[in-house]
Amino acid sequence: MELTNKSWFQPPTFLLTGIPGLEFVQIWISIPVGFMYLVALLGNCTILFVIKTTSILHEPQYIFLSMLAATYVGLSLSTLPTVLKFFLLNHREIEFHSCLAQMFFIHTFSSMESAILLAMAFDRFVAICDPLHYTVVLTPPRIIGIGLIAVFRGVLLMVPLPILLKRLPFCKGVILSHCYCYHPDVMKLACGSVRVNIVYGLSLVLCSFAIDSIFIVISYILILKTVLGVTSGDGQLKALNTCVSHIFTVFIFYVPLIVLALIHRFGTFTSPLLHVTMANLFLFLTPVLNPLVYSLKTKQIRLAMHKILKSKANFM
């Protein structure tokens, strides 16, 4: 019995989970999964390159977009090795400390993404509601400051997560619900009291994602109020058109995040397939769709990409 109690405190090796019922075609699932990673990395790196090399895109709106793209690159790289090894090689094991590290980076980049989406909402608010002071409010030092705050906030808020988990023994099994490490998923396998973890996790959500989403909604209420005050119908459409890509990105980020959080909190009897579906949407949806949405919807980025491709073709 003494040996068993001691074994509870040994860091376990967790087992990742794929798509329930489709284990026999797992290697074929690796093809679309690998393609999504390719689109996410190539697409977001392309946006970073286009914005960096095109001087007319060195404006607050596009600098924030480049920050968002960099966040998606980081998020994709933090899960790529384990997810591809899982689907390609059926390598299910992930060591405890590796799991905590991956969990930290996933949640940190997600917090940064939320903060940058808020910054982009503020950018649209200033551009539409107070255009005369746009360049005065969003100066390069302030933009850099906002980016640094997003990074530091993400890191400082997420550092306690692995620390709080390390102090716990694990005796409720080693099988995770997803093909990557997610804090509520790891926490439910711990023995003993997890009240501190739950309270801190709730505080973290309220201090970051909840506050960010509230201010994003407030920003768009004020934007809508300003737009409705414009007499010209064309002016209203032009103003709202500059927000469409951002609204779409906010939607595809927060909806899977909220649903996944609710599933882990209240979804004891929900289908495992729903768990996996929402987890994969949370992981892949925004990194994959962000470069597609902005490159298709934003005329300046389209033109810049076309110009770069044309110059490369002429050079060859």
Describe the structure.
With 316 residues, the chain is mostly helical. It contains 13 helices and two strands; from the N terminus they run H-E-H-H-E-H-H-H-H-H-H-H-H-H-H. It has helices spanning 2-8, 26-53, 60-89, 96-129, 134-137, 140-158, 160-166, 183-187, 195-228, 233-241, 244-266, 272-297, 299-315, and strands spanning 13-15, 93-95. A two-stranded antiparallel ribbon has the order 1-2. Helix 4 runs antiparallel to helix 6 (140-158). The protein starts with a helix and ends with a helix. Mean pLDDT is 85; it is low at 1-8.
| Fraction in beta strands | under 5%
Q: What is the first-to-last residue Cα distance?
A: 72 Å
- Please state the average pLDDT score: 85
Helix content: over 70%
Principal-axis shape = globular
Query: What radius of gyration results from the CA coordinates?
Result: 22 Å
| Topology order in helix (H) and strand (E) letters | HEHHEHHHHHHHHHH
- Helix/strand-derived category reads mainly alpha
DSSP summary, beta strand count: 2
**What is the makeup of the main sheet?**
2 strands, antiparallel
Separate helix tally: 13
Going across the major beta sheet, what is the strand order?
A: 1-2
Secondary structure elements and pairings:
Elements: H1 2-8, E1 13-15, H2 26-53, H3 60-89, E2 93-95, H4 96-129, H5 134-137, H6 140-158, H7 160-166, H8 183-187, H9 195-228, H10 233-241, H11 244-266, H12 272-297, H13 299-315
Antiparallel strand pairs: 1-2
Helix pairs in contact: 2-3, 2-12, 3-4, 3-12, 4-6, 4-9, 4-11, 11-12, 12-13
